[in-house]
Amino acid sequence: MLKLYIVRHGETEWNKVQRIQGRLNSNLTDKGRHYAGLLGEKLKDTEFTGIISSPSERALETAQLIRGTRTTPIKTDERIMEMHLGHWQGLTTKEIKEQYPEEYDSYMNQPDIYLNGDGESFTDMLNRANEFLRELKNSEMTGNLLIVTHGLFIKILYLIFKGIELKDLWTESTVNGTSLSIVKLEHGRFELMVEGDMSHVKEKDSTVIY
To answer: Is CATH 3.40.50.1240 correct for 2-143+157-200?
Structure first.
């Protein structure tokens, strides 16, 4: 049996001002680092047979903070990177709504047919998520695997685990920074056991969404 410990990276400077990152990077905030450290403390007795991170710096730093003093090597995989949002990257949500109203409407209300001319579609991201999960299914890996990735990618994973259609992407709740989801892979089937857990931070802080 393989257990996947799936984590979103910590809060970044751009998350705070609702600036779209996509494949661009923004540094973790002090809160982002602190929350990652708290999650690392919570998981300090969990032995990981492997750690896979998105190559994005914000994800890699989060993975390192969770790993702590352990020597488990961190491998990177481009398939679990955030959605490439093309010409939206670097803009705030407000700017995107003003400059690309039709695209934004499609993104929010028709994710199954949304297209970004110089970026990815949600279908593109779904395909690479399925490829990543197929590889895990076909591997002989057992134990616990830490996966540090991004908010939209985790939402796509939820669709797969729950059997939800792409058109219903936004019915899923927002994925908080450093939230932990645990998925069991056994006999070729994925079972979502824990979703978006934030119990490693104080209750008054755990409702903050970014």
So the answer is: yes
